[in-house]
């Protein structure tokens, strides 16, 4: 074999190796991922509220690929429920928005932040672009993304309530954002009822003794009886693992007490004994949970047969 032939063969092999290496490089993988996202909706145009940014069309395509079908949102109540759920807790399918956030990395954060802040929220109108922007920021998870979501907490416009609560929820599940004690401190100034429920949901799921002082402070400051009951339940759960705690110490209008058994993931109602509900009870058997309301003690008299006869 001639030396020239060997040299050419080695050169071709080396070139092929370089091409293969380039195909698997980070830049090549990113380019292919962005191309696949754009193919989801090649003709889509970014909404007017999107900034004139290079990746705006990609975000619009990712949202188009993830948003719910129009045929599933014809009913007004269903549409409102879907908007609320997706804005606060994130849609069940946000795979494409998450893919975009991963592919763009920090290059996308400014885009998502501007969409979050500037896109309007119109009552019962879907999609809510600000909520998809929250999903992208949460998927990014950087300190810049966290700062953008924290900024959304400063906007208390009632029309953007779902966005506010969605930002709070995503921040709470971001590792390292706040300690449980710090979340309990947020209960005191919080004015949104559902935001309080979201805070308590996270606080109670963590069940950390370090939050006791902050919860006691929040309990003392709380004016709403129902919220006060939930905070008391959070305190009771700190010392009563494996048991059921009351959420309404005074009981409801039917004389029933609401209990939660967090370890068993069970909620039930039980008759009140005396003026107040028992604070802590063991989990009762299934056939003793959720009894009907106590029967009325006086019945309407039934005319006797004699009185009805002639």
Structure description:
The protein is mostly helical and 310 residues long. It has a domain at 25-177. Helices cover 53% and strands 5% of the residues. It has 14 helices and 4 strands. It has helices at 3-23, 26-40, 56-66, 76-89, 95-104, 109-118, 129-140, 143-152, 161-172, 180-186, 193-206, 212-221, 225-239, 305-308, and strands at 244-246, 256-261, 266-271, 280-281. A 4-stranded antiparallel beta sheet has the order 3-2-1-4, covered by helices on one side. A hairpin with a 4-residue loop joins β2 and β3. It is elongated and about 90 Å long. 30% of the residues are buried.
Short description:
The protein is mostly helical and 310 residues long. The protein is built from 14 helices and four strands.
What characteristic shape results from the CA principal axes?
A: elongated
Number of helices: 14
Q: Averaging pLDDT over every residue, what do you get?
A: 87
Q: What is the topology, as strand order, of the major beta sheet?
A: 3-2-1-4
Spans with pLDDT under 50 lasting ≥5 residues?
10-15, 295-310
Query: H/E element string?
Result: HHHHHHHHHHHHHEEEEH
State the share of residues found in helices, binned by percent: 40-55%
* End-to-end gap: 130 Å
Number of strands: 4
What fraction of residues sit in β-strands?
5-15%
Structural class: mainly alpha
**Rg for CA atoms:** 29 Å
The largest β sheet comes out as:
4 strands, antiparallel
């Amino acid at each position: 074999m001639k030396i020239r032939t060997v040299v050419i063969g080695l050169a071709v092999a080396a070139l092929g190796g370089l091409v293969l290496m380039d195909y698997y490089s980070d830049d090549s993988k990113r380019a292919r991922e962005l191309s696949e996202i754009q193919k989801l909706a090649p003709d889509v145009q970014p909404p007017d509220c999107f900034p004139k940014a290079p990746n705006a069309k990609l975000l619009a395509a990712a949202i188009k690929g993830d948003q719910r079908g129009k045929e599933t949102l014809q009913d007004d109540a269903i549409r409102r429920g879907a908007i609320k759920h997706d804005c606060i807790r994130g849609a069940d399918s946000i795979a494409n928005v998450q893919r975009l956030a991963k592919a763009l990395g920090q290059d996308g954060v400014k885009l998502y932040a501007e969409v979050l802040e500037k896109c309007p929220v119109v009552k019962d109108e879907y999609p809510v672009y600000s909520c998809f922007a929250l999903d992208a920021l949460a998927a990014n998870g950087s300190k810049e993304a966290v700062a953008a979501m924290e900024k959304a907490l400063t906007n208390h416009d009632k029309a953007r309530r779902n966005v506010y609560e969605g930002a709070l929820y995503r921040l709470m599940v971001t590792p390292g954002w706040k300690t449980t004690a710090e979340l309990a401190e947020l209960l005191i100034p919080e004015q949104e009822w559902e935001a309080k429920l979201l805070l308590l949901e996270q606080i109670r799921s963590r069940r950390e003794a370090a939050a006791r002082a902050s919860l006691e402070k929040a309990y003392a400051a709380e004016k709403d009886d129902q919220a006060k009951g939930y905070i008391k339940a959070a305190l009771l759960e700190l010392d009563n693992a494996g048991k059921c705690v009351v959420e309404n110490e005074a009981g409801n209008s039917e004389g029933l007490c609401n209990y939660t058994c967090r370890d068993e993931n069970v909620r039930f109602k039980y008759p009140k004994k005396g003026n107040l509900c028992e604070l802590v009870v063991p989990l009762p058997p299934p056939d003793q949970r959720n009894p009907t309301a106590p029967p009325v003690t006086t019945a309407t008299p039934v005319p006797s047969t004699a009185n009805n006869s002639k």
